[in-house]
TrEMBL record:
UniProt entry tagged with the keyword Hydrolase: yes
Organism: Streptomyces halstedii
Domain of life: Bacteria
Cited CDD domains: AmyAc_OligoGlu_TS
Protein name, per record: Glycoside hydrolase family 13 protein
Length: 542
């Protein structure tokens, strides 16, 4: 059982770990105020142990006005009172580690909240002051400085510049409440290294780096030119010196980094994973891939190939706090993911999407490397339709109301079908409304059903941990190699070097299984003749 696994493993635990992402605000409410908190997480640690995960990744739990779901940090050394206290965070880290579960926290280095002490001081200071040098303040263009300093576009849409009453503008690649830091300033670098030490000393095992490729900017802040090399603010070479310094900090504590690095160039992506920089980075190619055998195989091959030269393990993820939930996305005509394509009212076949999500779970968990599991995926939760007047995500507002935003994948979890608000813990309505169907997905309903999504994930994680076929060989550690097996069109079939065989049928018809000695797990039953049905995956012992 997961509860009996050792509390310490090798220093390379992160290479094949299953890491569970917790969006604290929506995980579990311990004090009944409608917002998830650390007390709620602590109460659910037995559930996470039984699920069988190796680590927890917490999205930002810091003091924040929540203009962007906590990614607008006012103080990196304080827990937001809505979630708890620093002492409670320390207790949670220690309790989880005692159960064999490590903790990874989020760092948001590109920007801070406009309530951060540094930015408040900058607003109170005059143009050209040392306080403003910590950010990107500029005079505007035009006769009276009324035109933004350049033509960049915010990640959330619109201009990334906001003008102050004194006439100057400040840069924010995201929301106006998230002013960008000036990473050319030594105080910015020193502060973040100190923050890393602060949390490593409190027992965290790793740090996830938000928007890791955006920190450094061209000091001239020039207008954007399509195809310009280097880009004025994405993937600039100066970043690597920053992360080498960070790596020295992490190594002193045996800590690890995972970077959020969205880059189309695989060679440049791999630079972040060199032995003296980040340990791992998120694999967005796989996450955004449609449910189609050919592009999925290409995504897997490309991912393993780009990690192999630097000896870094791949990471696999189907969904996160920014992305349409898997069961919904796979039930649509367009099963890929693109922020620009999100619109209201997209038709969804949820039964089909759920069937595919079950198969995708076995696919991702069979691949060599680490897996990130977003809270609620193990329950098969669909994307929720949030009433327009309840949407809080700034992406919705800044799109002019076209983009439904990301709140649909952030709805508070259902724990107990017969309790108010599906057992989330609230005595008042949760911060986001739960759909009427939520009780049917509750953890207590699924817990006793081995055929449920929760039952599938629990058994899959048990096998991944205990089955010899998942053993990572030295060759696989260095190259991420797997062996593709002959298969019919539309079928993915591969063997791990430890002996596991995984087959995923995306062909539209039932197919024959390859030679094997035992069936370990299927995402759906085989047909009466022993064939693997469409949109089904199976694990075999070779």
């Amino acid at each position: 059982m997961a509860a009996n696994r050792p509390t310490e493993t090798t220093a390379s635990w992160w290479r094949d770990a299953v890491i569970y992402q917790i969006y604290v605000r929506s995980f579990a409410d311990g004090d009944g105020d409608g917002t998830g908190d650390l007390a709620g997480v602590r109460a659910r640690l037995p559930y996470l142990v039984e699920l069988g995960v190796d680590a927890l990744w917490f999205t930002p739990w810091y003091l924040s006005p929540l203009a962007d779901g906590g990614y607008d940090v006012a103080d990196y050394r304080a827990i937001d009172p809505a979630f708890g206290t620093l002492a409670e965070a320390e207790k949670l880290i220690a309790e989880a580690r005692g159960l064999g579960i490590r903790t990874i926290i989020d760092i948001v280095p590109n920007h801070v909240s406009d309530r951060h002490a540094w930015f408040r001081a900058a607003l109170a200071a005059a143009p050209g002051s040392p306080e403003r040098d910590l950010f990107h303040f500029r005079d505007g263009r035009g006769e009276h400085g009324e035109i933004p300093p350049n033509d960049w576009v915010s990640e959330f849409g619109g201009t990334p510049w906001t003008r102050l009453d004194d006439g100057q503008w400040y840069l924010h690649l995201f929301a106006p409440e998230q002013p960008d830091l000036n990473w050319a300033h030594p105080a910015v670098r020193q502060e973040h290294e100190d923050v890393l030490r602060f949390w490593f000393e409190r027992g965290v095992a790793g740090v996830r780096i938000d928007s890791a490729a955006l920190l450094a900017k061209d000091p001239g802040l020039p207008d954007f030119t399509e195809g310009a090399d280097p880009h004025p603010y994405v993937d600039r070479d100066e970043l690597h010196d920053i992360y080498r310094s960070w790596r020295a900090v992490a190594d002193a504590y045996d800590g690890i980094f995972v970077g959020e690095v969205w880059l189309p160039d695989s060679e440049r992506f791999a630079r972040y994973l060199r032995p003296d920089e980040l340990h791992t980075a998120f694999n967005f190619t796989f996450l955004s891939c449609p449910w189609d055998a050919a592009p999925l195989r290409s995504a897997i091959d490309d991912t393993l190939a780009e990690h192999a030269p630097v000896g870094a393990p791949a990471t696999w993820v189907l969904c996160n706090h920014d992305v349409t939930r898997t069961a919904t996305r796979y039930g649509r005509e367009d099963t890929g993911f693109d922020f620009a394509a999100k619109v209201f009212g997209t038709p969804t076949d949820l039964e089909l999407g759920t069937r595919r999500a079950r198969a995708a779970a076995l696919l991702s968990l069979a691949l060599p490397g680490a897996v990130y599991l977003y809270q609620g995926e193990e329950l098969g939760l669909p994307e929720a339709d949030i009433p327009r007047d309840r949407i809080q995500d700034p992406m919705h507002r800044r799109s002019g109301g076209v983009d439904p935003g990301r709140d649909g994948c952030r709805v508070p979890l259902p724990w107990a079908a017969g309790e108010p608000y599906a057992g989330f813990g609230s005595t008042s309505e949760p911060w986001l409304p739960q759909p009427a169907s939520w009780p049917s997905y509750a953890a207590d309903v699924q817990s006793g059903d081995p055929a449920s999504m929760l039952g599938l994930y629990r058994e899959a994680l048990r096998l991944r941990r205990d089955e010899p076929g998942f053993a990572t060989t030295p060759d696989e550690t260095s190259s991420g190699r797997l062996n593709w097996l002959p298969s019919a069109p539309g079928v993915l079939a591969f063997a791990r070097t430890g002996g596991l065989i995984c087959v995923v049928n995306l062909s539209g018809g039932a197919v024959t299984l390859p030679d094997h000695t035992e069936i370990l797990l299927t995402s759906a039953p085989l047909d009466p003749t022993g064939l693997l049905p469409a949109d089904t995956a199976v694990w075999l012992r070779g």
